[in-house]
Amino acid sequence: MVNSEKERASLLCMKALASRGRLDTVFQQMASHPQYLESFLRTQHYILYMDGPLPLNYRHYIAIMATARHQCRYLVSLHSAQFLRVGGDPSWLQGLEAVPPRLRRLDHINKVLAHQPWLTARSHIQALLKTGEHCLSMAELVQAVVLLAHCHSLCSFIFGSGFDLDSTPSPRDPHSMTPGYCLCDAANGNTALLSAPAGPTEKTPRRRSLDSSCELSCHREQKQKTREERRGNRLHSQTLLHADPEFGYQEFARREEDHFQVFRVQDYSWEDHGFSLVNRLYSEIGHLLDERFRNVASLPFPHSPDLKRAIWNYIHCFYGIRYDDYDYGEVNRLLERGLKLYIKAVACYPDSSKTPLCPLTWSPVKASEKVHLNLLVMEARLQAELLYALRAITQYMIA
């Protein structure tokens, strides 16, 4: 990295440190690509803190919902703290049943976008905008969708970078959290509760890795909170189950539903359709997102532009998005099997409690190259979710 790039990265990290009170681990990783980091920070700051239809506490709670979908302890803990700092009601952290209906109704589209975005339909949009007194405005929905997609894709980056895999158990504060407590489960919204711990002959859910790895981040966060915040982070006396745990990513190419057609970019693309729509409904966000896509596309790749395009198109294949002008034989020719396994794990299964990350055996791989690869995965996934959501909004508007 030349001196000017190092200085730019240092300045960006200093700004992040000043605004957040600490240097976020995510930003440290992204700082190896300062031009991209700058656009990422601008987008995230705009979504979470600048003018927009959703109040700040709603935004952070939606971020909790999105990151809890992938059991991302790092981001759930971070946004829970931010939620409380902007005046969020601590009782909402007990689960979706405690939040206003307008937020609770986002649970379904959150689940769909996170795991099977091709299921996003005009009917989902209509249900959120037109049903009862608790409906969302179009501007609120668009901001919520952008925030959900941003957070889902950021989970992939974090998972690929290993941030969420190194937590180790720490002693619990007996006055702050109940056994089995996990904010990830609470934010996924459910009403079923686990019974008392099973006896030696009973079969218990396999939750040890999730609960134990949550403990360190939750415990550290508790030390930084006031008495009221600690009380707000308590849950019911028993653990809330993960909502709809069977719903996850499924192979698009092997699905049984014939009515889900391949999404052809020639019919609905970011450049020709999504950008203008989202920019019109949520001012300026289209420009900020487009800058992110352009920046990650312009990062110098140490191997070849063809390999970079193969990675992007391979990721979109997971979500049923195809480019008519691309020879998909290039994917198998350019991508090694180990690289393909890694990309798929990061893009589709960013949940360390369910799927261990396939080690990246692609050689040679420098640290900055791995960050670059994870940025590609994050941005390709972000664009895929946005394309499905914005197409459904377009279909609703013209119906």
Short description:
With 399 residues, the protein is an all-alpha fold.
Structure write-up:
The protein is mostly helical. It has one domain (55-195, 205-399). Helix content is 57%, strand content 1%. The chain is built from 18 helices and two strands. The chain has helices spanning 3-20, 25-30, 34-49, 56-68, 73-85, 101-104, 107-115, 122-130, 138-161, 183-187, 208-223, 227-232, 270-281, 285-298, 305-318, 329-334, 337-348, 367-398, and strands spanning 263-264, 321-322. The protein has a two-stranded parallel ribbon with strand order 1-2. Helix 4 (56-68) packs across helix 9 and helix 8 (122-130) packs across helix 18. The longest helix is centred in the last third of the chain and has 32 residues, at 367-398. The radius of gyration is 21 Å and the shape is globular. The relative contact order is 0.14. The model is unreliable at 165-182 and 189-242 (pLDDT under 50).
What is the element layout, followed by pairings?
Layout: H1 3-20, H2 25-30, H3 34-49, H4 56-68, H5 73-85, H6 101-104, H7 107-115, H8 122-130, H9 138-161, H10 183-187, H11 208-223, H12 227-232, E1 263-264, H13 270-281, H14 285-298, H15 305-318, E2 321-322, H16 329-334, H17 337-348, H18 367-398
Parallel strand pairs: 1-2
